[in-house]
Specification:
Residues 34-65 form a coiled coil. 62% of the residues lie in helices and 0% in strands. By secondary structure, the protein is mainly α. The radius of gyration is 22 Å and the shape is rod-shaped.
Length: 65
């Protein structure tokens, strides 16, 4: 894991950065939450694109009738 402040390597599960001495426990949980939200956002974007593609295909079929 990297310190979100000084970017030095820290031990997994560390509460304080050994290099800069800053508290990294809270930022680590926020980073994990952010990563989870980014994954969910990407999944929603993919789902939205599939829905758009499907709607477009339906509209094309209706126009070709």
């Amino acid at each position: 894991m990297r310190c979100p402040y000084c970017q030095s390597g820290t031990a997994e599960g560390a509460l304080v950065c050994a290099a800069c001495g800053r508290d990294i426990a809270v930022p680590a949980t926020l980073i994990a939450e952010r990563d989870d939200l980014l994954r969910k956002r990407e999944a929603l974007r993919d789902e939205l694109q599939r829905a758009r593609d499907e709607a477009e295909a339906i509209m094309r079929r209706r126009k070709s009738r």
